[in-house]
Amino acid sequence: MKVILHDLGPDYHEAIGRRCDVELVADGRYAPCQGCFGCWTKHPAECFMKDGLQRVCRTIGHADELVIVTRNLYGSYSAPIKNVLDRSIGTSTPFSTYRGGQMHHTLRYGRHDLWKVVVYGDATEAERGTFRYLAERNAINDGFARSEVVFLASLAELEEAL
User: Fold this and answer.
1) Is the pTM of this model over 0.90?
2) Rounded distance, CA 160 to CA 80, Å?
């Protein structure tokens, strides 16, 4: 299953919807993670907050391919994208294991294929390097076999990058 998480406006919904099985819109209208860890322990993979992200852990957890379309924010995800990723911590469990010689949380849904980040907006070389490293580490932590980062010169290139 291919999931696309994006922070773009409604003008892009149709184009993105054609390219994925599930579209997650990070529109900034969701409550931030409260850090209660209920999605880890009390109600596995389900947030106690009753909004559109209540079951985001399950959606991302079942993704073979996760594509994140985000505006560059100093070499990282935009705030709405980061909010959704924070709310998806329940894709793993509170238990730890070694993967690749490093300690990581045990995956609740098993391994995945591709963690892809499509970045728009100006980015310096240092920000590009930070983004590549961040995506690589996020992919490892969330059980994705590989990561990829694509920087767009303009949003006109978006459909080709997806």
Assistant:
1) yes
2) 23
d(CA 76, CA 133): 10
**Could you tell me the two tokens for 3?**
């999931």
- Which residues does 60 contact at the CB level (< 8 Å), separation at least 6? 3, 5, 24, 66, 88, 91, 142
Walk me through the domains of the chain, giving residue ranges and CATH numbers: 2-161 (3.40.50.360)
On whether the CB atoms of residues 64 and 112 are closer than 8 A, the answer is yes
The pLDDT tens digits of the residues spanning 37-96 come to 998 889 899 999 989 999 999 999 999 999 999 999 999 999 999 999 999 999 999 999
